[in-house]
Amino acid sequence: MSKLWAIAVITYKEGIRNRALYGISILAVLLLAANQLICSMILRDVGKVSVDLSLSAVAFAGLLVVLFVGINLMAKDLDRKTIYMVLSRPVSRAQYLVGKFIGLALIICVSMSLLGACAAASIFLTKLNYPNFFDRFAWSGIFTSMVFSTLMLLLLAALSFLFASFASNSFVTLVLTIATYLIGQVTGDVKALVEAPAVVGIQVSAITTALVKTAYYAFPNLALFDLKIQAAHGLPVTGSYILWTVCYWCFYLVMALTLATLIFRKREFP
Amino acid sequence: MKQWRMVGLLLIITLSGQSLSLIRADRAKELLPLAVGKSYSLPSQVLKLSALEFDGLLSDVIFLRTLSFYGKTFERKERPRVQESELDWIYDSLSAASDLDPYFLDPYYFANSSLAWEGNRVNEAMILLEKGAQYREWDWLLPFFAGFNAYYFLHDNSKAAKLLEEAARRPGGSPLLATLSARLSYESNQTESAVLFLQEMLLRATDDYSRREYGQRLTALQHILDLDKAVAEFTRRVGRAPTSLNALVDLGIIRELPREPYGGGYYLDTETGTVRSSTDFGKKAATSNFWEVLK
After folding, report:
1. What's the domain range around B35?
2. How many domains does chain B have?
3. What are phi and psi for residue A189, nearest 5 degrees?
4. Predicted ipTM > 0.90
5. Which of residues 39-58 of B touch A (CB under 8 A)?
6. Which of A216, A219, B17, B57 is most buried, by the most CB atoms less than 10 A from its CB?
7. Pick from B106, B136, B166: which residue ends a domain?
8. What ranges do the domains of chain A cover?
9. In Å, how far is B60's CA from the nearest CA of chain A?
10. pLDDT tens readout for residues A100-120
11. Residue B9 counted as domain residue
12. Stretch (H or E) spanning B26
């Protein structure tokens, strides 16, 4: 356990020192400042647009953290062969992988908290300027949405570890992670489309339907974690939705990490 | 020192060069066949897929693009200011924005002012307003707008009464709505009902554009209401209807003819005996038409 924690702490420190984090933070602060400007152009639903922009900025910056900081942490260890240094010590490969993941998870949680605080400040400022246009507004919805965004990023990070466990270099990992993110965001919508093709006036063959359905269960459904519109309009999110989505997240995360460990243990290093 | 001067000069040249070419490129872009306002709007299913987790954001962006396009048309001199094909595009864009986030109020609100009020596209505006009213079930404003359109533009009193009843039932709906709904259920003075409607709409308008639009229409309708009363007074005193509105001034019932807010004037439609606006509330060009009518 102490070894696991040691690796996690080292990973966290290494990641926090990454210059990319500063760039990502600057981007997020700029986007949040743009929030004030854009909201001044909205006729009525200022609260909605403000929440939308802030949560999207946080989600986007968080995505960059996973793609450019997270992938570097594990894949670069393999690229630069620094992994030999670690594995020559009395640390199992499973410990190494899970430790790395915990470190990355810490980085994601800390950056999302910082970004979230910026977003909340930005929304608060807009609310001060346009107090009449926030009639259906609840901080709880915004908090839930941010927590769910964080869960999504953690899941994506776990998947990037799975890809890194067999990919030959970090670029392949990056491409696979981006592809998973893209598929994960649309798989629900595509499934709905092929199940009711008449709505949009398209024809779908039985093979396509089968393929889409297989992909739906194989790839993670990341759209489940998107509660931005609910937060923006103060729409209710049921307890069962939260419960089942969190269950799904736990199962998928453990599955991805288990698979990653299995493959990583068998992997031969040149 | 000389080197620094060279670098400074180079920077000034490139900075002004890029700003200048940006302005020219921007102008040239408007002449491209696929400029904003004419281009094809993507179907909302495709947009929804490509938006990933940023549906709400894309909806905001599409709405703002439509709004800024519409704002730009105010610089034009030609009448009608917005082409029919551009109104199609505005409708498609607002429809797509409301598909991406059906709870977003602004596309509906803006559709009402641009399509129903300005563009004479009441049916399209109604589709959007009714869609918005269905999703935003807590919001009384959208069924209220739809009710006004049904009454004022479509002359469908029973539909208007139903929509107003719906608006009155929702939280925050003004008690006036129920009265209005009742008025519409039986035929009463149309102009008077419209004035009541507009007073409420003016009260709720938050943007300058809508406020001006509603304010102008309200002033014009109030003028017409006053003139109608003056015509009735004339008929009562003289025993016959006046042939023109100037007769009202001559008899001293009114001191002068009010100024129509759209730049035209008022005239008496001798066939129906009603007072009308020469510009049809700003839809026709003001001057020439008005003088033709006076002749």
Report:
1. 14-136
2. 2
3. -65, -40
4. no
5. 43, 45, 48-49, 52-57
6. B57
7. B136
8. 2-266
9. 7
10. 999 999 999 999 998 899 889
11. no
12. helix B2-30
